[in-house]
Design goal:
With 383 residues, this protein is an alpha/beta fold. The chain is built from ten helices and 15 strands.
């Protein structure tokens, strides 16, 4: 008896073209995303794509079905664009681990992502900026993909990598006096060579700031950005761990607590992520102090949840700086004791105006030095 083999149908050009366009010429396997139009080493143009089937073209193939294999053999919904390695993975080396449902989700997620990115208009572009510095003995792991996910769909990255304002492989830590001088000078010089140049030359005039650094450096960064830059400041939240802002804030009530009497030394403490006892301030500055406080009812690290929270915080800081200057006069300086989230520290620097506000000396809590230590004075002299 003669066995007649079924002839495979040819995929129509319009279907193949739609698959290439919807995948942007990249492998649709989750986590791969490599370009299928160039050699990875030489960058020469080649076609290294496989048009693969989710449900096999024959019933006895990977994920084959007696009815659907023939019905969906050349249907767009059943086709994926894959590289050689991923094609082999789903059809040979790990068939059981790649069900129809898993592959359909990979295809949909990839095509949705391409649709989102390609639909964004040029005025939604933003420069992603990183500031990472050693905190204690821990380095700062900032990941470009995490930052990109946080800004989309409202913005999209102007480049495929961030603008780094960080020192790499610094051998000093924040309990070293040299650390503050070196990091401050580095931050200012990198700002001038990167962000200042971008502001003067780039058509994109929006900046998305992602930072993990000690609070004095965050405040210094804020003074460099000030109100001349159109920026979005992002906050890393711990539960759940994400940089993405939520739509609704906590309706935080930021309170300004004024001192009961005027003394010769001014301190301003921020109690947002934790409380700071006055004794800790007396320990480094003595007893002749007027202590001002900006606080919330229940300080915690995740207190800032939305851009509205951040906006309200800026208004309160502006109000506090004016009150302090009015109360104490023009020839004073403010000693800053911060216990606050990343975004709020940057905003303190952005709100502070060097020509209008009192100079500031910023302290930082350091366990190895048994309390607060003096770090950076603003305005900062780079000489």
């Amino acid at each position: 008896m003669e066995i007649i083999k079924r002839v495979r149908k040819s995929i129509e050009n319009k279907t193949a073209r739609k698959l290439w366009v919807s995948s942007a010429g990249r492998c649709q396997y989750d986590g791969c995303n490599i370009s299928l139009l160039e050699d990875a080493l030489t960058k020469r143009g080649i076609n290294k794509a496989y048009i693969s089937h989710i449900i096999a073209a024959s019933p006895d193939g990977p994920r084959g079905d007696k009815v659907l294999s023939e019905e969906l053999e050349i249907d767009y919904s059943n086709l994926m664009l894959l590289c050689d390695e991923c094609h082999n993975r789903i059809d040979e080396s790990d068939v059981d681990g790649h069900t129809v449902e898993i592959l359909r989700k990979m295809k949909k997620d990839h095509e949705d992502r391409i649709e989102l990115v390609t639909s964004l208009t040029p005025n939604k572009a933003t420069h992603i900026v990183f500031l990472g510095a050693n905190i204690g003995e821990h380095s700062s792991p900032l990941v470009f993909e995490d930052a990109s996910n946080a800004i989309i769909p409202l913005k999209f990255p102007s480049e495929s990598r961030p603008y780094e304002l960080s020192l790499k492989q610094l051998s000093f830590y924040d309990n070293d006096d040299e650390y503050w001088l070196i990091e401050s000078k580095s931050l200012i010089r990198q700002y001038e060579s990167k962000l200042k140049v971008l502001k003067e030359s780039s058509k994109v005039q929006h900046y998305s700031i992602f930072a993990l650094a000690p609070q004095p450096l965050l405040i210094l960064l804020g003074t460099l950005l000030n109100d001349l830059y159109n920026v979005d400041i992002f906050q890393l939240k711990r539960e759940p761990k994400t940089w993405k802002w939520v739509d609704i804030g906590n309706n935080l009530n930021f309170r300004i607590i004024e001192p009961t009497e005027k003394k010769s030394i001014i301190a301003l403490k921020f109690e947002l992520s934790d409380e700071i006892s006055n004794d800790r301030i007396f320990k480094v500055l003595g007893d002749d102090i007027s202590i001002w406080t900006i606080k919330i009812e229940s300080p915690n690290s995740d207190c800032i949840q939305s851009t509205k929270d951040l906006e309200n915080f800026r208004k309160v800081v502006r109000q506090a700086l004016r009150k302090i200057k009015s109360y104490h006069g023009d020839d004073q300086e403010i000693n800053i004791f911060p216990a606050m989230p990343i975004s709020t520290a940057i905003e303190v620097g952005r709100v502070w105006m060097p020509k209008a506000d009192l100079p500031m000396t910023i302290f930082d809590q350091n366990r190895s030095r048994d309390g607060f230590i003096k770090t950076i004075k603003l305005p900062f002299n780079i000489i």
